[in-house]
Amino acid sequence: NAGVTQTPKFRILKIGQSMTLQCTQDMNHNYMYWYRQDPGMGLKLIYYSVGAGITDKGEVPNGYNVSRSTTEDFPLRLELAAPSQTSVYFCASSRTSGRSSSSYNEQFFGPGTRLTVL
Amino acid sequence: QKEVEQNSGPLSVPEGAIASLNCTYSDRGSQSFFWYRQYSGKSPELIMFIYSNGDKEDGRFTAQLNKASQYVSLLIRDSQPSDSATYLCAGKEGNYGGSQGNLIFGKGTKLSVKP
What we know:
The structure holds two protein chains of two kinds. Helix content of chain A is 0%, strand content 47%.
């Protein structure tokens, strides 16, 4: 199992450009997440998906879009890149939801994409 | 605003000592908590999960949860230089209002273990 894979590892964008960050998992997890991590900060949830065809906004969705056409893939689209989107982006997946208070919904993280917008 | 607060550190301890990392949370509905370790330039990896009041031990790691005080901690016994990393505390959103139980992360505490 490769787990959660992300491409690219690094990218530099100019202001106003667009790009798609790719995320794939081979663990047959229903739940997938996109986070961003700014220097010295924790992880902020951008979007999440509870299954193919179902996505929802997290804490910081502005400037991003997602789609989930298959269980395996969860791409993140940046439209009109801005310097404020300079960050490290992590994709994660989990087998179960967090609905039950005792559910051990461990999230497995990909290696991250380091994005700089100049 | 649901928040998870951590002291950003850095926390420096000598090799072999006990490292104590603390976390408080604002969401009274949060029932379970995760500790992730993140090495510099790497992705987070789960090291502890706790949802019952009290202590949970796993090897050199002990997680402690006090729901009345809204306080979570992680103790690392016999600290090693390889434990040097940033430790992220995460609380699961309370199960209300259609919440999916997503995780809310603190900013992390940077731990440095000196040989």
